[in-house]
Amino acid sequence: MTSPSTLTTTIFIICDIAYYIIHVLLSPITYYLIIISHISSHILMEYLTEMQQRVLSALYDNDKVTLRKLIELTKSSTAPVNNAVKSLKERGLVEEIEETGGFPKRRCIKLPEKGKRVVEKLKELYSLIKASS
Fold it and tell me: How many whole angstroms separate alpha carbon 108 and alpha carbon 64?
């Protein structure tokens, strides 16, 4: 035999699930999705500048690139790309590799696994924001 408190708790859980299904899952564009996507995007934008995001996206689409190629891909100039790479490197979101064997030495930049995960989250946020507008 179940106690009245267990029965009451079960009823509250069922009511919460029903509320969730009605108000969140069945609405065409959920209020919660919009709020979460805007908050998440604001947080990421606060911590990653536009140039840093462009660098990450360019590296995600290309295995490893030279700084010159990265400048070309981001449609920017040397100083902003250098600054973005430097700060992303400090956070462990990009890696610098010096290719030896030729002259002059080539400095290549690539995404480690952590950087790839960040870019995938960024792309997910962008698609959520696009879907909610």
Answer: 6
Q: Which residues pair with 131 in a beta bridge?
A: none
CB atoms within 10 A of CB 66: 13
Tell me if 6 is assigned to some domain: no
Full-model pTM: 0.63
CATH number (domain holding residue 125): 1.10.10.10
Task: For the chain, list the strands marked E by DSSP.
Answer: 64-66, 95-99, 106-110
Starting at the earlier edge strand, list the strands of the sheet with 64-66. Answer: 64-66, 106-110, 95-99
> How far is CA 85 from each of CA 13, 59, 89, rounded to the nearest angstrom?
49, 11, 6
Task: Summarize pLDDT for 101-127 with one digit per residue, the tens.
Answer: 766 778 899 999 999 988 988 888 878
